[in-house]
Amino acid sequence: MPAVTEHGEQKAVCDYLNTSYPHVLFFSVPNGASLSSPRQMSKLKSEGLLPGVCDLIIFEHHGGYAGMFLEMKRLIGGVVSENQAWFLAEVERRHGYGVVAAGFEEARDFVDEYLSWPKTVFGVSTNETPLPFEGNIVSVDVGNKHTTLITG
């Protein structure tokens, strides 16, 4: 039986997020993409490509964290690179929740756990009163989405 690829595992996580958490904002970072030339790699680096960035970013504040950074590995044989270990340490230093998941099931469990924690804004549970803010808060409706803009 052929080994399940990291791509297949990550696709399953994305399908799960889209089905189980349709309102959660997440995106992938194509750092592992095959690049056709050193020139293309140089161009992407000049545009901000950073080796080691996690595969999936869940941009939801829960449990006091600024977001979840999920590094996918295939179930058997996946190894965390030096750049990935550095990035995960930086995520934690900046109050993000960084995890490495071996396969879909482990990733799903991490996602479910993280999204079950209390939703937070500025590190404060949304059930609590946030600290006073000395900026401007503007509510805007764009199409069918409601957005709050915060300016300082």
Task: Produce the secondary structure layout.
Blueprint lengths: L5 H15 L5 E3 L9 H9 L9 E3 L9 E6 L8 H12 L3 E6 L1 H13 L3 E2 L2 E2 L10 E7 L2 E7 L1
Parallel strand pairs: 3-4
Antiparallel strand pairs: 1-2, 2-3, 5-6, 7-8
Describe this structure in words.
The chain is α+β, with helices and mostly antiparallel strands. The chain has helices spanning 6-20, 38-46, 82-93, 104-116; strands at 26-28, 56-58, 68-73, 97-102, 120-121, 124-125, 136-142, 145-151. The longest helix has 15 residues, at 6-20. The radius of gyration is 18 Å and the shape is globular.
List keywords for this structure.
152 residues; two-stranded antiparallel sheet; 32% helix; four-stranded mixed beta sheet
Describe the structure in brief.
This protein has helices spanning 6-20, 38-46, 82-93, 104-116; strands spanning 26-28, 56-58, 68-73, 97-102, 120-121, 124-125, 136-142, 145-151. It has 152 residues and is α+β, with helices and mostly antiparallel strands. Strand 7 and strand 8 (145-151) form a beta hairpin.
